[in-house]
Design a protein that fits this description.
Elements (H helix, E strand, L loop, with lengths): L2 H20 L5 H18 L1 H22 L17 H20 L4 H27 L4 E2 L13 E2 L1 H25 L10 H23 L3 E4 L4 E3 L11 E4 L6 H27 L2
Antiparallel strand pairs: 1-2, 3-4, 3-5
Helix pairs in contact: 1-2, 2-3, 2-4, 3-5, 3-6, 4-5, 4-8, 5-6, 5-7, 5-8, 6-7, 7-8
Bound molecules: zinc ion.
Length: 280
């Protein structure tokens, strides 16, 4: 894309990020990170990628707000509050930006388009599953072994949350497909529905990777003063917490970054394999 296109992408991303900041969905740093990720995804990935990212951002913000208005259940204290900061935004958007750069600078290859979608679909699936599953999911169980655990536990899944995640991945992929058709975007239509099928399948797979990492490697803590599980190294009572599972350096943002990398990478791989098998 030319310099004019990148300038337009910067302007549109800044407008969306400013609205997110004013609406209480982003911190100042989160808004700056959203401008950077949005400019790369839209400016280099084109309209279908840009609208898929907007669909993820708007629906995730709305579900988070909706979940905040639901009756409060006893749950594991999350590491961060409702406003998304720069690390959270980049954990969900950096991989999509990387695949968008590969798409825009590398001849608009179908595998790169699939990678953009796989990463964004993973982020959407995770967020929809977490917010809707927490508010409506009933008794969550660990994805490894099925033991019942408190709501909000990393790696916990429920049928309702999983269904919501599949719906979230479907929503962003459907938006990208519709925009590709409407704008006749080069590179997004060449291989028919293959880009979208790969993005959707990888988004669901990326959500599973997120849960598996959350149940195994992600650091989980316990406050011995309050006897409460938490995702914070320091509890809100001020006491330092004790690591009870996973590793200290891998938090929710790191898991999201790894899961979107898995989603993007799997989408690109699904696309290449399907293309080879179909003999294009
Ligand atoms: Zn405590």
């Amino acid at each position: 894309m030319d310099v004019d296109g990148l300038g337009a992408a910067l302007g549109l991303s800044a407008a969306v990020a400013a609205a997110g900041w004013r609406g209480g969905h982003l911190t100042g740093g989160g808004a700056l990170a959203a401008v950077a990720a949005g400019t790369a995804v839209l400016g280099l990935g084109g309209w279908p990628a840009g609208w898929a990212l907007v669909a993820f951002f708007v629906t995730s913000s709305l579900w988070t707000r909706w979940a905040g208005g639901q009756p409060v259940k006893p749950r594991v204290e999350p590491a961060k509050g409702g406003r998304r900061d720069a690390a959270q935004v980049l954990a969900n958007g950096a991989v999509a930006a990387g695949f968008a750069a590969a798409f825009g600078l590398g001849g608009q290859a179908g595998w790169a388009a699939a990678g953009v979608l796989g990463a964004i679909a993973t982020a959407a699936a995770d967020t929809w599953a977490a917010e809707i599953g927490l508010a409506r999911g009933g008794q969550p169980r660990l994805i490894t072994g099925g033991a019942p655990v408190p709501p909000g536990t990393s790696g916990a899944v429920s049928p309702c949350g999983t269904a919501a995640g599949v719906a979230g991945a479907t929503a962003v992929v459907a938006v990208a497909a519709a925009v590709a058709g409407l704008t006749r975007s080069a590179g997004w239509l060449r291989a028919g529905c293959l880009v979208y099928a790969a993005g959707l399948g990888a988004g669901v797979a990326g959500m599973v990777v997120d849960s598996l990492l959350g149940a195994t490697l992600q650091g989980g803590y316990r406050c011995d003063a309050c006897g409460a599980p938490t995702e914070r190294p320091v509890h809100r009572c001020g006491r330092r917490t004790r690591l009870v599972r996973g590793v200290r350096w891998l938090g929710n943002d790191g898991v999201n970054l790894l899961a979107t990398a898995a989603g993007g990478g799997l989408a690109a791989a699904f696309y290449r394999v399907a293309l080879a098998l179909s003999g294009f």
